[in-house]
């Protein structure tokens, strides 16, 4: 059994320590991908990223996926999701089963970030706390956390085009989000497993939205997971093991026989919500369901993988021992993680919120008998979007979609109305006497000056160059 010490992590009996297993995997990745200089050089080569943005590594998608949705079907799904987002409170109140079904089918990529924010309640939190992220972002932060965060930045999805460059804008935004969270919850601080969670969010939304998504995951979906001692994750490990006895008695007996504690194989699965384990198409589908239905999806994925890998005597012939079993669970067969197979297995597995809560109470009683009271008093877990919305009912204003493109009128409506009444002769005269219109997107040779060479175009100049990180005001960029 793992021994607990101070800090957001687990210390093993053999003396090796991990603040989370994310650090352990990061070391494996760094050894396989070469030096940092090689990594930075890789970012500048002519490598074509896959449709998810990966330019290498285990999670890169090879070639075209045969499961790709036909364009006409995708357009129909987008129209349905836009209607849902425009009437979110009504859909969640009266047609939640339909929302759940559409999440199981997969959220359209163009709307995934926005849908996640609505499902998690992050949209409401953001609207109810205007300027909060900006305030936290402007603060210096606690040096003890900043140093650890900076060291972890390059370990998060090092083969994704957003994070491949050291000091790049993906890493900058990741730093901002993680720092803001340590200021938002100073008593909790930072845990390494939060970094991949925040990185996945940043792949789909601006930094401010990713911050509120992270807040909701840490406080509503997985409360206590990232607190000192990791008691919540150990408790969920025991719940997973108890549920496995019902789902796959063969796998349960095998793990019990060789005294393999759940925390040895499920910590990274649960703390990183499988973002570092599954192929990327499967990660996104699991997260779609996770945001809608809550932590039961994470339990179901874990149970499916354990059942597939250890669920029959034939499969156990090759792993007669603790070491062999752990090696098997570290290298899950790709066919079991394939998107269509895994999603269907997860949907069909009969494990409900009630089953999890019932087992939670049972394991909590055992924990108190063997360990005493929990040191971390985390808030109650919310099982998905409907529970979160019921606990904190939003207003229509909170759910209102912000316009993605805002065009400032150069003149007031009254002045426009007056000009519309001018005669054709007056308009012709003005056209002949007026100078040519300013070019709102001057070429480099224009030196950003108007045609007369007098005034630089600042107010209505071109968009900021790509070296500017994505701000929450630029909502249109991820749709």
Tell me what the structure shows.
With 479 residues, the chain is mainly alpha-helical. It has helices spanning 21-33, 36-42, 71-86, 88-94, 96-105, 112-120, 122-128, 132-138, 143-152, 169-184, 194-202, 207-221, 231-247, 249-257, 263-271, 280-293, 296-310, 313-316, 322-330, 334-337, 339-348, 353-370, 385-391, 396-399, 413-420, 424-433; strands at 10-11, 17-18. It contains 26 helices and two strands. The longest helix has 18 residues, at 353-370. The protein has a two-stranded antiparallel sheet with strand order 1-2.
Topology of helices and strands:
Blueprint: E1 10-11, E2 17-18, H1 21-33, H2 36-42, H3 71-86, H4 88-94, H5 96-105, H6 112-120, H7 122-128, H8 132-138, H9 143-152, H10 169-184, H11 194-202, H12 207-221, H13 231-247, H14 249-257, H15 263-271, H16 280-293, H17 296-310, H18 313-316, H19 322-330, H20 334-337, H21 339-348, H22 353-370, H23 385-391, H24 396-399, H25 413-420, H26 424-433
Antiparallel strand pairs: 1-2
Helix pairs in contact: 4-5, 5-16, 7-12, 9-10, 10-11, 10-12, 11-12, 13-14, 13-15, 13-17, 13-22, 16-17, 16-21, 17-21
């Amino acid at each position: 059994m793992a021994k607990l010490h101070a800090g957001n992590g687990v210390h093993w009996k053999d003396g090796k320590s991990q603040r989370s297993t994310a650090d352990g995997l990061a070391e494996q990745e760094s050894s396989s991908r070469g030096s940092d200089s090689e990594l930075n050089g890789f970012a500048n080569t002519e490598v074509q990223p896959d449709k998810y943005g990966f330019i290498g590594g285990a999670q890169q998608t090879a070639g075209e996926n045969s499961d790709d949705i036909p364009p006409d079907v995708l357009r129909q799904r987008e129209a349905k999701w836009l209607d849902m987002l425009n009437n979110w409170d009504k859909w969640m109140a009266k047609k939640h089963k339909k929302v759940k079904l559409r999440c199981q089918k997969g959220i359209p990529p163009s709307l995934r970030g926005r849908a996640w924010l609505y499902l998690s309640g992050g949209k409401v939190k953001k609207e109810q706390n205007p300027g909060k992220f900006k305030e936290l972002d402007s603060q210096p932060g606690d040096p003890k956390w900043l140093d650890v965060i900076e060291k972890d930045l390059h370990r998060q999805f090092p083969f994704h085009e957003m994070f491949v460059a050291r000091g790049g804008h993906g890493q900058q935004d990741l730093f901002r989000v993680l720092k803001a969270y340590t200021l938002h919850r100073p008593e909790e601080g930072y845990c390494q497993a939060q970094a991949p969670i925040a990185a996945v969010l940043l792949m789909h939304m601006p930094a401010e939205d990713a911050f509120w998504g992270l807040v909701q995951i840490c406080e509503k979906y997985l409360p206590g997971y990232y607190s000192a001692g990791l008691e919540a994750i150990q408790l969920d490990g025991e719940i997973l093991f108890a549920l496995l006895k019902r789902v796959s008695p063969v796998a349960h007996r095998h793990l019990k026989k060789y005294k393999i504690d759940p925390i040895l194989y499920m910590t990274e699965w649960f703390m990183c919500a499988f973002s570092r384990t599954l192929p990327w198409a499967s990660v996104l589908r699991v997260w779609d369901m996770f945001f809608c239905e809550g932590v039961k999806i994470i339990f179901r994925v874990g149970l499916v993988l354990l059942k597939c890998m250890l669920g029959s005597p034939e499969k156990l012939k090759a792993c007669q021992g603790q070491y062999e079993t752990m090696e098997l669970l570290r290298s899950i067969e790709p066919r079991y993680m394939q998107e269509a197979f895994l999603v269907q297995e997860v949907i069909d597995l009969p494990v409900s919120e009630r089953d999890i809560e019932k087992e939670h109470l049972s394991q909590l009683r055992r924990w108190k008998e063997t360990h005493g009271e929990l040191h971390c008093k985390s808030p109650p877990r919310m099982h998905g979007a409907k529970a979160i919305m019921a606990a904190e009912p939003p207003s229509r204003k909170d759910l209102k979609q912000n316009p993605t493109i805002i065009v400032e009128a150069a003149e007031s409506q009254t002045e426009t109305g007056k000009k519309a009444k001018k005669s054709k002769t007056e308009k012709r005269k003005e056209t002949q006497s007026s100078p040519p219109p300013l070019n709102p997107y001057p070429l480099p040779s224009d030196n950003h000056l108007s045609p007369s060479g007098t005034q630089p175009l600042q107010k209505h100049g071109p968009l900021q160059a790509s070296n500017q990180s994505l701000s929450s005001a630029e909502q249109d960029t991820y749709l």
